[in-house]
Every structure is written in structure tokens, then in C-alpha cells.
Amino acid sequence: MKTPVTFAIAGFGDRGSTYASMQALFPDRMQVVAVADVRPERVEKARQLYNIPAERCFSSAEELLAQEKLADVLVVSTMDRQHVGHAIPALEKGYNILMEKPISPDLAECRRIIEVAQRSPGKIIVCHVLRYTAFYNTLKSILDSGRIGEVVSVCANENVGYWHQAHSFVRGNWRNSRETSPMILQKCCHDMDIYTWLLGKKCVSVSSVGSTYLFNRAHAPAGATPYCLGGCKAKESCVFDAEKIYVTDPRTGIRHGNTWMPGVACGVDPTEERTYAALRSGPYGRCVYLCDNDVVDHQQTNLLFEDGATMSFTMCAFTENCYRYFKAMGTKGEIEADMRSNEIHIRVFGEPEEIVDVRKIADDLKGHGGGDSGIVQDFLEMLIEDRAATARTTTLENSLESHFIALAAEQSRLEGGRVIDMDAFRRGTTE
């Protein structure tokens, strides 16, 4: 393929704008030439950033897809339940596709797009960006080396962070599974993908329990109002107060130069004034106890693998920081690691502990630990060099396994923790 590879962005929110920004890293190999988003301010921002002609700026992905093919690649970063509906016509038009996860919360849709992709000339990969991080690639090398023997058990945590839960999964776009996806799929399909990839083992059964423990009306404090800035009498003592999170908190607030979450609340280019305006009437200013959320705030999932190995995975909102933790226990030793410290501790039985500092070997730790740039680089190489997918690449088929596990976990949770047979679930024959 010629260079630069041209990109159209369908959905210029957090993820779509992130992938577009990789043009700065790969200026000779990548060019953003078209954009679509339902929010005009986002379209305008993209137009200015990438000098996109007005006739290539659209108010929806559907409007973009109604045109003749506009680019080599379409980035599908619309909402979860729109991905397949946007990707299939794009494949039929000859686009290569970089698809944000999840593929879909509907397994029938997942299977349908695989069928379409198999007869389409374009390449398509799903954005399981953790596979492209130095952190997880180092873990993979250590596990594959056999230093700790056969992995018998894994303990893993997705520490969501109380402020991230409130932002994304109570007030935000992924608060309601009927509109988007269950949280175990939307947030944790990354985890189901990365851990099955690390272990290289087939999952044979899944069970899961969890609930919305705190973020519901039963826990609303006395004097709570629908909006935090609407006279709430519990505002001063509430850690989830929108003004604290979006304005005054040193870690997340606009007053301290933080723009990610205030930018989502405002739509584009946040200022303190715009943030306050958004909080007075927009979704991100709502009381976390009085929202229309139904996704869980904690979930425990247990996996059994075909060789008898086990994994315990916990997703929990009630953590100070947002990071992943991993511990593998093998027949010859153990590995303990987390993405906050970016350290991997290797303890081979009877030998001194070894500590690998990923910060010293990684070229990029920004954006999911370097995964955002890594997946774009890999996709560009696949296209420019006409290279096939590698064992690391998250093809549709590879990604589908993480969806099977996550959706089986959700079914188990809804059924009180019933053990789900994965072979039957994959076939669609589970009762």
C-alpha cells in the first residue's frame, strides 16, 4: 500500500481522537482525511487539527458511509452497539478497519461480522491495545520461557478507581448495559483477552458474581439532589461530588490543568467556565446515586482452563488508583506485577528475587502503557508491507474469545453465579 495510509475517523470522542493523534508519531505513514461525529464541536476540532476539507466532515458515521470510499482505513470508534452496523458497510466498501472494542455485546452480531470480514479484501483488527505494551509483552516472554514452570493459578485485578467509575460507568457513556455493554465486556474484555493470550490456555468454564453495591438510590445521602450543583446538602462530604472531580481535585480537575474528564463533560476544549456550565445541566453533573446506571461496581469472575489451571479476576470500583494487577503462580515460581509501578517481580523458588523495571526498557508508556501507539504502528506495518496478522494481533477471531468469556461471565452473574460451560456457550447451546 502507498504511504501515507489515509484514515477516516467515525466517532471523534476520546478513543477516536487518540487514534487520530498518532498521525503526529507517524507523519510519513499516516494521514487523517475525513471525520464523522454526532457532536459538531468535535467535527470542527478534527477539521482544524488535521486540515480536513469541509466536504469530508460529517455529522454521523452513516453520512460518512453513504459516500464513496474516502480513505484506506476507517477507525470505528462509535458507541458499542453501533460498531458492527458501521463496520459491515465499511468492509463492503473496501475499507480496512481499526475497530474499538468491544466488537458487540451481541454474539450473533460478532459472528455476522466475522463472516463478512472473511469474504472482504480489507484487514480488520480490534483495539485490544494491551497486547502491544512493553509491560505485557515482557510478561509474555517470561511466562513462555518456562522460568516459573507451568502456570497453575492466576490472580488478577482491574482496579477501576472510584473517580473513573463515577465518570465513565455511573454518569457517563457506559453506565447502562441496555444502551452499551455490560461492564465485564466493555471494561474487562481487555483483561479476558490479555490473560488468555498470556497463558495460551483454553477456558472451559466460567462463573461470576457481582452487583451495583453503592451507586444506587438506596445509598443516596440525606439531602441529595439530582445535580451536585443543585443545592445538595451532602455535597461537602461527598467524594463523588462533580465539582470536586471535574474542577477542584488535583488529579482530575480542570483547575489543576487536567483536561481529560472535564473535556468529556464539556464536549471539547474545556475551561473552568465551560466545565461549570456542563455540570449544571449535563449528565456529568448528576448525583451518582440518582443516575440511570445499571452496570456493576464490583464483579468477581473465576475461570477454569482445560489443563486444570484456574484464574480469579476481580473488577472493583472502590480503589484509589486506576491500574491492573497480575500474579501468576507456577510449578517453579511466581510472578507479581502491576501497571502502576511498571515493575515485574520474578520469584523462582530457591533463587533470589528478580525485578524487571519496564520503564527502563519501554520506548513509550503513554496511552495504555504504549498500547495505543503500538497497535497503530502494527496496523500500519500490516497495510504498508501487506503483512499477515501475527500471533499477537487481535483479529476478529482472536478477539471473539474474550467476548465469549466476558458475556458468559455476565450470564453467570445474572444467574446467581451458575457455572457456564464454555464449549456450549461458544456453540450457543447453553441453557
- Average pLDDT, to the nearest integer? 94
CA-CA gap between termini: 47 Å
What is the molecular shape? globular
Q: Main beta sheet: strand number and arrangement?
A: 9 strands, mixed
Strand order of the largest sheet: 14-13-12-11-7-10-9-8-15
User: Counting H and I runs of at least 4 residues, what is the number of helices?
Assistant: 16
Query: Superfamily at the CATH H level of the largest domain?
Result: Dihydrodipicolinate Reductase, domain 2
Q: Which bin fits the share of residues in helices?
A: 25-40%
The counted number of beta strands is: 15
Which CATH C-level class of the largest domain is it? Alpha Beta
CATH topology name of the largest domain: Dihydrodipicolinate Reductase, domain 2
Number of domains: 3
Structural class: alpha/beta
* Low-confidence runs of at least 5 consecutive residues: none
The second-level CATH architecture of the largest domain is: 2-Layer Sandwich
Explain the overall architecture.
By secondary structure, this protein is α/β, with parallel strands linked by helices. It folds into 3 domains: 118 residues, Rossmann fold (3-Layer(aba) Sandwich), CATH 3.40.50; 192 residues, Dihydrodipicolinate Reductase, domain 2 (2-Layer Sandwich); 69 residues, no CATH class. It is built from 16 helices and 15 strands. A 9-stranded mixed β-sheet has the order 14-13-12-11-7-10-9-8-15. A 6-stranded parallel β-sheet has the order 3-2-1-4-5-6, sandwiched between helices. α9 packs across α15 and α10 packs antiparallel against α12. The mean pLDDT is 94.
